Amino acid sequence: MEEFSLMTILAVFEEMFGRGLFWAMVAVAVAITAAWIYVLIRDRSMSMRKFLLAQLSMPIGGIAAVWFVLLITNSGLRDIGGPIDWIVLLGVFVAGAIGFAILVYVVQSLVRGRPVDS
Amino acid sequence: MEFDKITASRRGFLGLAGAGGAALALGAGGAQAAKVRTNARILILGAGAGGAAIANRLTDRLEGAQITVLDGKQEHWYQPGFTLIAAGLRPASYAQSSITGWLPRGVNFVNEYAAELDPEANRVTTTGGQQIDYDYLIVSTGLVLDWDGIEGFDLSLVGPEHGISAHYAGPDYAETSWRALDKFTDEGGVGMFGRPATEMKCAGAPVKICFLGEDIATTKGNRDRCEFIYNAQAPNLFGVPVIHHRVRQIMDERDITYRYNHVLKAIDPGAKTATYATPDGDVTDRWDFINVVPPQRAPQVIRDSGLSWADRWVDQGWIEVDMQTLRHARYSNVFGIGDINGVPKGKTAASVKFHLPVVEDHLVSEIAGQEATRMYDGYTSCPLITRVGRAMLVEFDYQDNLTPSFPGLIAPLEELWISWLMKEVALKATYNAMLRGRA
Asked: How far is the alpha carbon of B352 from chain A, nearest alpha carbon, in Å?
């Protein structure tokens, strides 16, 4: 079991957040993704109006993700050193942005309901 | 082949903060091998990082073995967290947990210490008078901190009142040590740091707390009132030459004074002075804050047992194991894991991580009548914190070679945020997974 494997990564993440919280977060991410797929199938199209708002909200999600990571790790932007640090920070930003955009799209779709065909 | 595996597992230990996605490409591990049937009696001395982890691993690999774990402590300490506690970044509870929570079901946990160990008779007598016979012995006792080795020092002196820090002593002392460092970086004065002349656990830790203290004083705007002096026991700041030069460069940049060949031998808490043994005789200096790291040795029961080297580290008593197989040189049914091993390098949790598969392989293979193949190359690592928010991911082996886990990606001697993330976020989780035998 000393080889690096998917099971090792899962074990480490379980330890990091606690087993319950980790799988709860996975469940939330899966639920939002499933809801997104659901509304896409239900509406049978992407709503460009909802997608526009989702895109406009992406920086908020990205900045929030970066802020959250810096907060929980007792660090700040002044600590960013070499290229790998920028890549990781960018990855956190992009992940937060995409996740939040999907969330915004899903919330709009569920709150406003199915669009009336024009 | 062997080293390919070791490199892959090293990524497993360190690669979880930022490079997890890339590492996923390495793929899932193989299926668990079938258990080996045996009725061997295996005694594990010590339930720290090495003892708890090997108990879990052997439970997974063996069917029917009688595994006994002997340790008089109640509490498990996550020792890599002590530096963070002593820098005010975590509470003492961060490093505290119950020993029994880490041990697998089915092992016999005896909550006593070993009082006598007879490797000729394959028998250990506990402090409670119980006799335990074994077929295989795994020595994972860790080491003892020889506080009496510093004349005039007593653990009751630790704290802001005297300006004394002793963050190696345990989670609560690390927290009290933080209050001393906090006061020093508020009020200013002379801060003394350094390390003992014996082998020691995590040789980077005395340097880390010095860097952290300097950074905290800078953040508070009090740097000009604080003087930082690092006292090295040798003519270098770190045993690995390339790391020594990098640490010296950072100390120069940050105006930290360093002195070579200064070994702390006594302190006077009333006069606030420290006496150092140097090649030119004793030197006594005044301080306002001092971080005391004492000499470190094998527990007395081990030193009395005949397992120690007879001609090396004679004042310290580390056990005579083969540096690659970790099997005892004179008692083939005895293995060592962790700090207790008399090998040239690596009294760290990262070393424990790499001792584990080697000892597991040699022990289980012998029981199964097969030949073991795993060897330990001296790998150890140290996320060398240089300030709050940055660290260098220092990794090296017996030959003083740098052994970066992510060559070209994470530079070993560069101060990086990702290396800090590993220390801050991923390391304890990986350590815990290691204890459970899952990493």
From this structure: 12
pLDDT in tens, B324-348: 999 999 999 999 999 999 999 889 9
CB pair distance less than 8 Å for A74 and B390: no
* DSSP symbols for A19-57: HHHHHHHHHHHHHHHHHHHHHHHHHTS--HHHHHHHHHT
Please provide the CATH number assigned to the domain covering B32-72+111-143+298-378: 3.50.50.60
Q: What is the pTM of this model?
A: 0.89
pLDDT tens-digit series, residues B76-130: 999 999 999 999 999 999 999 999 999 999 999 999 999 999 999 999 999 999 9
Evaluate whether residue A1 is within a structural domain: no
* Number of domain units in chain A: 1
Residue of A nearest to B30 (CA): A1
Distance CA A101, CA A56 (A): 8
Q: In this complex, do A15 and B428 lie within 8 Å of one another by their Cβ atoms?
A: yes
Asked if B70 and B110 touch (Cβ cutoff 8 Å), the reply is yes
Could you state, in order of their start, the residue ranges of all structural domains in chain B?
32-72+111-143+298-378, 147-296+381-428
Is B356's CB within 8 Å of A88's CB? no
Q: Using an 8 Å CB-CB cutoff, list residues of chain A that contact chain B.
A: 1-9, 11-16, 72-76, 78-82, 84-85, 87-89, 91
| C-beta atoms of A11 and B438 within 8 A | yes
User: What DSSP designation does B19 have?
Assistant: -
How large is the ipTM? 0.81
